[in-house]
What we know:
The protein is of the alpha+beta class. It is built from eight helices and 14 strands. It folds into three domains: about 40-155, no CATH class; about 165-225, no CATH class; about 245-335, no CATH class. The chain has helices at about 1-10, 20-25, 25-35, 50-65, 75-85, 100-105, 120-155, 280-290; strands at about 15, 40, 165-170, 185-200, 200-205, 215, 220-225, 240-245, 245-250, 255-260, 270-275, 305, 310, 335. The two termini are about 60 Å apart. It is found in: Nucleus.
Amino acid sequence: MFQHVFRNFGLPEDIVSDRGPQFTSRVWGALCGCLGIGVSLSSGYHPQSNGQAERLNQEIGRFLRSYCSREQHRWSEFLPWVEYAQNSLIHSSTGLTPFQCVLGYQPPLFPWSGEPSDVPAVEEWYRLSQEVWERAHVRLQRAVRRQRIQADRRRRPHPSYQVGQKVWLSTRNLRLRLPCKKLSSKFIGPFEIIRRVNPVAYRLRLPASYRICPTFHVSLLKPAHPAVGEAGTGAAPPPPLDIEGSPAYQVRARLQYLVDWEGYGPEERSWVDSGDILDPSLIEDFHRTHPGRPAPRPRGRPQRRTSGVEHLLVFSNVGDPEGVAPACGGGHGGIPL
């Protein structure tokens, strides 16, 4: 740290890192404490907490794979030029290059006039260096633009939780002591939130047998809705109805459509409430071509009742714990299937 960071840039105010043993050790904590450096550790199983460093490593790895895949033993020779290209690349977030942010100006690159040199070795070095830098610069720009488009398509506002609220914890990155992970639960808990570390990370009250970091990113959490009668009102669930000697229960209607979004592949299909479809003609065309499918009740038509029990239609997604497919806000134009 002193040889490569402190002597060039000075002591930092805060260091963001993952939870590697070298960053969670007592020696590292004591050193940063004596120097007045804050230590910010990323939440468990969420490398996006240190997204700038992870993203930079991916860009460098992508260039090295594409340029020296057939000469992998020479990868270290191209690394300085990759670093130079990355530091000269304009970032969309700042509109400046890293050189401009740190130094205040952009260092000139290859101030060579193009005239041949009397020394063949020098001329060959200039030619190869310029070729390597230009390839690195073009590939980095393409990668940044492509990744930004893909990330913006899937970004959604994250939910906000309160201390004391119970949430389910995803088992995506947990080592469950079960023979088959595919047949195991997707979420475990619910667990109580005991602290809000930052707007996107929360600390949970985990059992003592869970030897993992209790801080998790919001993407690994799902709100736990209290069951009927658990909200503190003391109301008991209603008894089942007796229909010809068999128990029956009333359900709430929720008609949904499986929407194929225009311009997106079949993996992006989602269930949408009928009220979220902005173009009513899409629903009319669907029921005109599929008269046998469940349809919303027309206005003015009374609901049919048999023995005092409502006949309700539920278009649900298989595997949803609530029995109802998750609704998705409509921002694209689509057709119901």
